[in-house]
């Protein structure tokens, strides 16, 4: 069963919140973030104001995939993670 946009936004928010709280994650989670963002960016139901946030999350996920120290990458972006989740909640 495919996820609708609301489910995708919630999953995206959950993964980012876990990264922010735990300061760790996996490459597969970054790949999942990347897939979710790609899907949401082409969805007409997504509020235009959230698209710049999705672009930042996409860059974060790509950097995480290629990072030699994913935990450090997540820790470096801890404030961004919190802000992105907040921004997404404002527009969902």
TrEMBL record:
It holds the Pfam family YtzH. InterPro entries: YtzH. This is YtzH-like protein. It comes from Rossellomorea marisflavi.
